[in-house]
Amino acid sequence: MMKTILQLQKVNWRWVFARTALAALLILTMGLGAFAQSTIRGKVSDEAGIGLPGVNILIKGTTTGTTSDANGSYSIQVPADGGARILVFSFIGYQTVEQTIDGRTTIDVSLTTDVTALSEIVVIGYGEQRKEAVTGSVASISGDMMRDIPSTNISQALQGRLPGVEFSQTSSQPGAAMQIRIRGSRSLTASNDPLIVLDGIPFVGSITDINPNDIKSIDVLKDASATAIYGSRGANGVILVTTNKGQKGQKARVSYNSFYGAKKVFAKYPLMSGPDMVKLRELNVPYKTYGQDEAQDVDTDWQDLLYRTATITSHDVGISNGTENGNYNFGIGYLLDQAVIPTQQYSRYTLRGTVDQGIGEHFRFGFTTNSNYNITTGTQVNVGGLLRMNPVANPFNPDGSWKRTVRTAIDEPWVYSKEIVENLKDEWLSETRGFASYNSLYGEVKLPWVQGLKYRFNLGLDYRQSNGGSYTGQGITSTNPNTVSVASVSNSHTYHWLAENVVSYDRTFAQKHMINAVALFSTEQNKFNRSRVVARDIPADHFQFYNLGQAAGEITMAPGEQWYEVWGLMSWMGRAMYSYNDRYMITATLRSDGSSRLAEGNKWYTYPAVSVGWNISEEPFMQSIAPINLLKLRVGYGQTSNQAVNPYATLGRLDTRPYNFSSTYSTGYLVSQLPNPNLGWEFSKTTNLGLDFTLLNNRLSGTIEYYVTNTENLLLSKGLPPTSGVSSVTENVGRTQNKGIEVSLSGTILDNNGWTLDAGLNFYANRNELISLASGLERNEGNWWFVGHPIDVIFDYERIGLWQEGDPHRNILEPGANTLGMIKVKYTGSYNPDGTPTRAIDAQDRQIMSMLPDFQGGFNTRLAYKGFDLSTVGVFKRGGILNSTLYGGGGYLNLLNGRNGNVDVDYWTPDNTGAKYPNPESVRSGDNLKYANTMGYFDASFLKIRTITLGYDFKQLKDRNINLRVYFTAQNPFVMFSPYHKESGMDPETNSFGNENAAVNLSDNLRRVLTLGTNTPSTRNYILGVNFSF
User: Residue 121 in 3-state DSSP?
Assistant: First the structure.
C-alpha cells in the first residue's frame, strides 16, 4: 500500500489535469456543435396583412412546433445541423404554406383563404362532401354546438336541433334511451328505429353508450337518395356519428370537460291533500269508513317523504396530437346521474381511442375504439306505489319510528319513504351492469398508377353484454310478512362483426369536372342470446341474486325468456357523384343486399337511388343579385327496404305442450308457426325536393324540403281457418305513406361593436296514412289501425263535457244510469224526425282521433359580448293528443284495488256544475266510472325552454395557447302553452312513449300513444361546468 502511494506522488498531476481539461473542452465543443440551434422569428398574417393568432408552425418531419401569438408573431428553435429544414404553417380555413429556412432567421408568411376548407363538410357515408355539393337530404350538427348543452346522452343534446328528427322520452329514469323517429313511422309491426353508424361502422348498441363529449359531428341522412347507400339497414334513416380525432400538424393538446349540478323535482304529482281526500270520501258513499292508521286530521304528503335532491356529475379527460402524417386521440370519461327517487341512478365509464397513421405516401392504417361500462340501479322503486298512498294515513308509530305498512279501510299499503327505501339495502334492490366495446380497424392504399384511386379495408368488431339482477326480501312491499323472497338474474350478449372492401376514386379535371366513385363489398354477422332465471325463497338476504342455487323454493326458466338468434347480411354497392363547376350535380347509387333472414328466392334485392342538384346562384344571370350567396335546388328519388322479419320467421316452428293421459302427463309437440318461404322485404320509395339558400353575405341560411315516402309489402298477420291448427300467418300485404315539409333557418342577427347574436329555428310537419291492410280489411280495431287514417291514433269516445240537469236526450243516450254530473261523450248516430236520437250511445260512437301534431320543431339563440355568452335552446309542438294515466281511469275515483290516493281535480257537485271532472257521488260501487279513459286525453301542445346557459370564455389566455370556459346552465326552467302543464303543473314530455312504471297496464296499441304515466318525475337541473384545454 505504501509503495503505491509513493508511486502516485511521483505523477505529474499538472500534466494530467491539463490534458483532461483539453479533452473535456473538445467534447464540449463537439456537443455544442451537435446541439447548436438557431432561432427563427416572424409574423403570420392574412391576405389583408392582419396578424393571425393560433397558427400552427411545425418543423416538417418532426413533432417540434409552436403557435403564433395574438399578434401573429412567433419564434421557434431550429437545429443548426446544416440540413434542409422546412417550416409548415397551417391554420383552419387557410391554405397550408411550407417555407424552406435556407439560413434565414426571419420568415414572414401570408396565408391565403382556402375556400374549400371554409365550406362545411358533411359526412354522407363512405365519404365526405362539401355542403354546397350535397344532393340528398342531410341535417348536421357539430360537436361544439352539442357541448354548449351539458347532457348525459346524445339524444338530449339533439332534441329540437334537427328538422324532421323527433326524440321522445320513453322513461325519465337516468340512463334511459330515447325513441328516435326520422320523418315519422313507416312500419306497423317492425322496428322504425334508424340505423346508427359510429365512425363508419354500423352500430349495434344504444345511442346512450356514446359519450357526448367524444362527438365531432353528427349527420342525419333522411331521404332514400341519401340512405340508399346503406340499403336495407337505412330504411328508417341513418345517423352518422363521427368522434373526435387528432388534427394534422397539431401539437399535443390536453382537454378537460366537467360539469356538476343539482336536480330538483320539476313538479310533484297533483294529488289531493288530507282535507281534500276527507271531503271526497264523504261524497263517495262506499268509502266513508276509515282504517286503523287513517284519521281525518292527518295530512301526509307522501311525495315529500320520498323525493330527494339528486346530483349529476361528469368528467372527461382527453389528449390528442397530430403530425403531417398521423394523429391520435385518447380519452376517458365518467358520469354519475342520480334520480330524485332514492337508490335510482346511472353511472357510466367510457374509454375511447383513435389512431390514424400514414406510412410513406401510399399507405395508411388506423383504429378506433369506444368502450363503456355502465351500472343502473334502483329501478325497483317506482312512483306508482307512492301515488296509491292515502294522505289521511299516518306513516309514523307513536314513538316517531316508521311503519312498514299502514292499515287503511281498503287494504294495507307499503310505506314509501326516502329513509325506508335507503335503509333496506340488501333486502330490496335492482341492478343492471352493462359493458360494450365498439372497435374498428382499417388499412388504406393509394394506388400509385391511377391518381385518386384508393382501396380501403374496414373491419368492425363489436361486443355488448348486459347482466341484471333483482331481489325482493321476505315481506318487502307486501302487507303479508310471510311473503317469500324472490330473486331473478338475466343476461344478454351481442356479438357483431363487419368486413368491408371499399374502392374509391376522387379526381377533379380542368378544375371544373369533379368525379367521385365508390364501390363496396361487405359481409356482416350478428349473434344474440339472452336468458332469465327466477328463484323463490332465498334463505338469506345477503345472498341477494348471486346464489340462486340456494333457493328453497321453485327455480324457473320460462321458455319465452330464453332466446338465441344469428343473422347475416352480404352486400355490394356502387355510387357515382359528378359535379360540373359546382353548378350541376348528380349522384347515383345502386345497392344490393342478401339477408339470411329470408328464404331462397327472396334473399336478394337491389335498390336504386338518384339525386340531382342545381346551384342556381352559380348561373351567370344570378351574379348581379348580390343578396343571394347560394341558391341550390335538389331533387332525389330512391328505394330502400327493411329486413324486418324475425331471423327464423320463414321457417316452421314446433312448441311443446303437456297432455293428460288418464293419470299421467306426457309432453308432445304441436305446430305453432307454418313455414312461410314467400316472406320478403318491406320497401320504402321516397321522393324528396329541397331548396338550400344563404343570403345577405352569408348571414342567413336555410333549407326547405318536401318529401313523400310510400312503404309497401308491410308485414301483417293474416287470419287462417281454425282447421289449419295455426291462427294466422305473416304476409307482405300492407301499405303506408308519409309526407311532410321541413324548414330550417339560421343566421347572424347582430354583429356590431363586439356584440353578436346568432339564432336558429326549425319546424316540420309529418303526415302519415295507412293505405291498406291484410285481406282487404278497412279497419283493425284491436290494433287501432284504420285505412285512410294515421298510423298513430286513439280509438275511443270523445268527451264533450258532463251531463247537467235539463240536458235534452240524457235518458235516451244514457238510459237507466244516474248520469247527473257524469261524463258526456259525443253521439254520432242518426236522429228521428222529432230530433231525438235513434239509439243510446254505444261502441259505434267511438272516434278515430289522430295523435299527430300539426307541427313541431326547435329553436336556439346565442348572444355574445367580450367573452360572455348567453344561449338558449327550446322545443315546441302544436297539436296532437297525449294520454295521461294520472287523470284517466287509474287516477280519479279509482279508490279500490289498492288505490287510496286521488288526483286533485275540480269535480262536479250540485254547487259546482261548471267543473271539468265528474260527480264522485254518482259512483256507488267498484271502479266502473264510465268513459274514464277520456279524462286522460289532452292537447299535446307545448313550448319548452330546454336550456339557458350563461358562459364566460377567458380569451386573454389564448395567447398562451390555453382555452378556458366556465358556464352555468338551467335545464327545463320553463314550460308554456301546454294544456297538460296548465292542468297538472307536470312536464308534458315525461315518459313520452310506452308505459314504464305507469299505474295501469296499457295494451299494445296504447304503447304507440304519447303516454304520461306515473314514472320517475322529471327534474329541473342547475349545472356548473368548465371546458379547459392546453
Answer: strand
